[in-house]
Design a protein that fits this description.
Elements: E1 3-6, H1 10-21, E2 30-33, H2 37-47, E3 50-52, H3 55-61, E4 64-67, H4 74-81, E5 90-93, H5 100-107, E6 112-117, E7 127-133, H6 139-150, E8 153-157, H7 163-171, H8 173-190, H9 195-216, H10 220-227, H11 233-243, H12 246-265
Parallel strand pairs: 1-2, 1-4, 2-3, 4-5, 5-6, 7-8
Antiparallel strand pairs: 6-7
Helix pairs in contact: 7-12, 8-9
Bound molecules: NADP nicotinamide-adenine-dinucleotide phosphate (NAP).
């Protein structure tokens, strides 16, 4: 399967390195097209994929085209690739906030389209990618997307109406979890822990709790209650956290993110 990346930045790198790690394609089947000579050199040297500075030539060479430029660069990019996109292409767009309708407006309606909202945790092979497929996309196209993104984390199919919420929760989520992580580590330092130790303890506690809760499927309220033994240490902390506006602030944070995503889609 020949895959062309239009834009070979951070996200494209995470996706293509997972494709190679999982043996979905050989390096010679992947073309990484980027404006920047540094990115092209890195792609060639580190991943041995074919570098290109020509988006139209990249599309002509590929069966699957991954649009991985910033949303504001989409229209400009599509001016050059629209004339060479055909019904034989599957176009996978990861441009945040760009609806399938918006992508088709600039890329034309000949190819099959799938929109994916991944997140930066792809870089750790633990991404969360949500996709929505256009009407013309086939089962085989959906499988390609599940294979590509499923190789670096979880994949979910949702209706496009949920994409602003998806952007808020899993798309932008890594920044919000990092913020919580920083608050936890800073709190540990304030109690006298060395900064490196505090960061490791916060990270490992976040990772371990996430893995345990996902694997066990335990009810979250029941889990919190179970950790808070009566008159114990966690209970003393939860009395403070539970009374704080923390949950409301998180909800407001996600609402502001979703609103901005909707604004960008216009
Ligand atoms: N980062 C995230 O957490 C995240 C999460 C979900 C979705 N996304 C989406 O993923 C996409 C890529 O994000 P990113 O963080 O990987 O961005 P990035 O690191 O800036 O990569 C985009 C690359 O595309 C290049 N480019 C721009 N216009 C081009 C053109 N016409 N032809 C060839 N290359 C071109 C850019 O070069 P220059 O820098 O020289 O312009 C840059 O190297 C975005 O649409 C974003 O919304 C990102």
């Amino acid at each position: 399967m020949k895959i062309g990346f239009l834009g070979a930045g951070k996200m494209a790198e995470a996706i293509l390195s997972s494709i190679l790690d999982n043996g979905l394609c050989e390096p010679w089947e992947i073309t990484a097209c980027d404006k920047s000579p540094e990115r092209r050199e890195l792609m060639e040297k580190q991943y041995e994929v074919i570098p290109s500075d020509d988006p139209a030539a990249t599309v002509k060479e590929s069966e699957v085209v991954v649009i991985a430029v910033k949303p504001q660069d989409l229209a400009e990019l599509c001016k050059t690739v629209k004339p060479v996109l055909t019904a034989n292409h599957l176009v996978v767009s990861i441009a945040a906030g760009k609806t399938l309708k918006a992508v088709k407006q600039v890329a034309g309606t000949k190819p099959r389209f799938i929109r994916v909202m991944p997140n930066l945790a792809l870089m750790a092979g633990e991404g969360m990618s949500v996709y929505t497929a256009d009407r013309k996309a086939t089962e085989a196209d959906r499988k390609i997307v599940c294979d590509i993104f499923g190789g670096a984390g979880a994949v979910l199919n949702l209706s496009e109406k949920h994409f602003d919420a998806v952007t808020a929760l899993s798309g932008s989520g890594p920044a919000y979890f990092a913020y919580m992580l920083k608050a936890m580590a800073d709190g540990g330092v304030a109690l006298g822990l060395p900064p490196d130790a505090a960061r490791l303890m916060a990270e490992q506690t976040m990772i371990g709790t996430g893995i345990y809760l996902q694997n066990s499927g335990r009810d979250l309220d029941e889990f919190i209650k179970a950790v808070c033994s009566p008159k114990g240490t966690t209970e003393a902390g939860m009395k403070v956290l539970g009374k704080s506006p923390f949950a409301k602030t998180v909800a407001k944070t996600l609402a502001a993110t979703a609103a901005r995503s909707a604004e960008l889609a216009k």
